[in-house]
Amino acid sequence: MIVQINAYNDVHVIEPEVEAVCVITHRALLPYLPGILRLTGIGYLEDQTVRLDPEWSGWSAVDRGKRTELPRSASIHVQAAY
User: Fold this and answer.
1) In what order do the strands lie in the sheet with 10-14?
2) d(CA 50, CA 2)
3) Angle made by CA atoms 13, 17, 18, in degrees to the nearest 5
4) 7 CB neighbour count, 10 Å cutoff
5) Residue 81: strand, helix, or coil
6) DSSP string, 27-74
7) How far is CA 58 from each of CA 14, 27, 43, 70, 75, rounded to the nearest angstrom?
8) pTM score, two decimals?
């Protein structure tokens, strides 16, 4: 699953069928990422990894029937210039 973060109020789940989870955002948003993650309920930042909250509303985009367990963390990928 890919979580695209364009702003604190612009978060989208794309490709929910992808098994691994990654967060994609812009370099300009990296200093604000901890707050964005908390405000949206996605989780929190620990080192360079996003620790995912199992209660996050975005999990509704994932077919839980195909997953036995929800992922606990996500990698962070930075998009090209904003």
Assistant:
1) 10-14, 2-7, 22-26, 73-79, 49-52, 43-46
2) 12
3) 85
4) 11
5) coil
6) GGGGGGHHHHHHHHTSEEEETTEEEEPTT-GGGGGS-GGG-SS--SEE
7) 10, 23, 11, 12, 16
8) 0.82
Q: Which helix (H) or strand (E) is 22 found in, with range?
A: strand 22-26
**What mean pLDDT comes out for the span 36-62?**
88
Q: Which two tokens stand for residue 42?
A: 């996605």
Q: Among 1-5, 26-30, 31-35, 77-81, whose mean pLDDT is lowest?
A: 77-81
Please list the residues that pair with 77 across neighbouring strands: 24
pLDDT at 8 over 90: no
Torsion sign, CA atoms 30, 31, 37, 40:
negative
Q: Residues 9, 44, 62, 22: is their CA dihedral positive or negative?
A: positive
What pLDDT does 39 receive? 93
